[in-house]
Amino acid sequence: MSQSSDYTPPAVWTWNKASGGRFASINRPIAGPTHEKELPVGRHPMQLYSLATPNGVKVTVMLEELLALGHTGAEYDAWLIRINAGDQFGSGFVAVNPNSKIPALMDRSGPEPIRVFESGAILMHLAEKFGAFLPTEPAARAECLSWLFWQMGSAPYLGGGFGHFYAYAPMKIEYAIDRFAMEVKRQLDVLDRRLAESEYLGGDEYTIADMAVWPWYGGLAKGQAYGAGEFLQVQEYKNVQRWTDQIAERPAVKRGRMVNRVFGDPAGQLIERHDASDFDLRTQDKLAAAE
Ligand SMILES: N[C@@H](CCC(=O)N[C@@H](CS)C(=O)NCC(=O)O)C(=O)O
Questions:
Q1: Kind of pairing, strands 46-50 and 76-80?
Q2: DSSP letters for 53-93
Q3: 3-class DSSP state of 50
Q4: Angle formed by the axes of helices 119-130 and 54-68, to 10°?
Q5: What's the pLDDT tens digit per position in 196-230?
Q6: Residues 6+ apart with CB under 8 A from 47
Q7: Could you tell me how many helices (H) and strands (E) the chain has, helices first?
Q8: How many angstroms separate the CA atoms of 176 and 157, rounded?
């Protein structure tokens, strides 16, 4: 391994140059809004401001699963937040999520709107509100929440650690790639062992834990994340593969992953969702054909 480094950190870090790499234009060391912009509000109880990244997909899958169970109170408008264009720094968005990251939810079903940010908190809020996808029996609930919070703590090593240094950083740093590849393979093995003994992460039931983990680790298992399938030999994690395929077959998952999607097959992109019929009528292929 290369050992050299010509960089010695100064006593005080200053923001005097762009960080480099993909997403450098939206990275900054301060919080708060950069511009005034109100968020749009639609007619449904749930107003979601998001993008179809793995963190965004967790919530659109949950909303589609709730609707599939007949919970009409989960009807939602999904508005697009283009993070590459800095929409997350608009004043309206920052008022919903002071952390300036998608997904962000406004629950407008009650007398006063309730803001919810952090995808795990949004999943819990919806699960408790509708009494679905979070077991109430104490042991099953604890197992579900343990895997939900496992995802919240683990995925930053996958995305911000491995993904960043393997795919997005302006230079390939062997030490950083080795460190995070090791951790991500360890995480895949954690999941693989759990899914060898259990159909779903929480146990026999499909829960918000699966909804949180699947968009990240299912995508990774299918080689869709960072072009790293071969590098990490993801096909070896047989139980993760089985679980990934099983969840991908769910109709609500197929719908949820299309919402706020701005890349890939036009037939799989529903840029904004305001009605259940939008899946049939307003995907990008249909809109282009109608022009
Ligand atoms: N822990 C947060 C992470 C959210 C997050 O990192 N969102 C990314 C997209 S996947 C984002 O909005 N990034 C914009 C930015 O960093 O400016 C969650 O689970 O909601």
A1: parallel
A2: SHHHHHHHHHHHHHHHTT-GGG-EEEEE--GGGTGGGBHHH
A3: strand
A4: 10
A5: 999 999 999 999 999 999 999 999 999 999 999 99
A6: 39, 41, 76, 77, 79, 105, 106, 108
A7: 12, 4
A8: 11
Lookup result for tokens 């639609």: 42
Assessment of whether the complete model's pTM goes beyond 0.85:
yes
Residue 30 backbone phi and psi in degrees, to 5 = -130, 155
Q: Which residue has the tokens 């895949």?
A: 188
Q: What gap in Å lies between CA 212 and CA 209, rounded to an integer? A: 5
CA–CA distance, 141 with 224 (Å, rounded to integer): 31
Q: Which of 199, 208, 206, 237 is nearest to 221 (CA)?
A: 237
From the CA of 102, give the closest atom in ligand 1.
12
Residue 105: enclosing H or E segment and its boundaries?
Answer: strand 104-107
> Ligand 1 centroid to 229 CA: how many Å?
23
Residue among 55, 88, 152, 260 to mutate when testing ligand 1 (max atoms within 8 A of CB): 55
* Helical spans, DSSP H, in 71-222: 91-96, 119-130, 138-156, 174-197, 208-213, 219-221
The per-residue pLDDT for range 124-144, each reduced to its tens digit, is 999 999 999 999 999 999 999
Residues within 6 Å of ligand 1 by CB: 26, 53, 55, 83, 88, 100-103, 118-119
**Tokens encoding 220:** 């990774």
Q: How far is the CA of 132 from the centre of ligand 1 (A)?
A: 25
How is the chain split among helix, strand and coil, in percent rounded to 5? 50, 10, 40
Residue 180 contacts residue 157 (beta carbons within 8 Å): yes
